[in-house]
Amino acid sequence: AGLHVADAEGLERSLLGRLAGGVVQLFRGGVPVRRASSAESSCEAMGEEPFWTEMRAAGRTLIALRDTAFPASGAEYAVSFGRTAAVGLYAEPGSAGDAYNAEWLQAYAVAFARLGLAGHIASQPGELRPGVQYFWRINQMFAGGRYATGGPGAGAAIAEHLTSLSSGRGVAVWPRAETMRFYQDKIALRELFERVGVPSPRSWVVASVEDIEQLLRIGELGPQHFPVMLKHPYAASSRGMMSCNSLAEAVPKIAAWLAEH
Question: Within 10 Å of residue 216's Cβ, how many Cβ atoms?
């Protein structure tokens, strides 16, 4: 009872004479009506509060309004439409098939839909359109996982790829290429922090037990600096982290960590 359904495109054409960016919000007496998810709208115990939702049926987008008092209440309804959104999602072919990354891509798509944005989905660089702001969910499976094992070069490769996507084509891709040069590179990020004065923990970069012993000999590393945290310089998601609680543990524990990583 009280369920009213309208074709979304028909509603736009009848009110605007053209297609815009889809229905953004319904208003009842000047007050926004709650937008319900499709799962909520199928629930029988929704109460008397008016709500609306968007659904797909027979290839059409439908706007469904549930208001048990309409039209008898005399309340007036209004609708707002979005502008045709120039946004998109870049599903880089080397990482889009990764199960974890696929969940993030789906989250972007759901967010676009809930915001009333008809985002353009591109899976190849040649499909990107000028004038569109694309979002790219970058992860370790970029380029088919070539950099997933933890080594230098991932950030630089991603920055180069981003630059190639946008350079001279009128295409904008987020995140910006220059920021990606620090992706999975804690050494470069540490140097940036020091250069611009961002407070950060004291750190040492070592590649061998000899490096540790040298730091101990010259007094750069001593008992007062412990405990310390060992971290992989080119990794993400806290991979390769290990604590070292005392100077006595330093050489054997760091030697074991270096051998493993």
Answer: 14
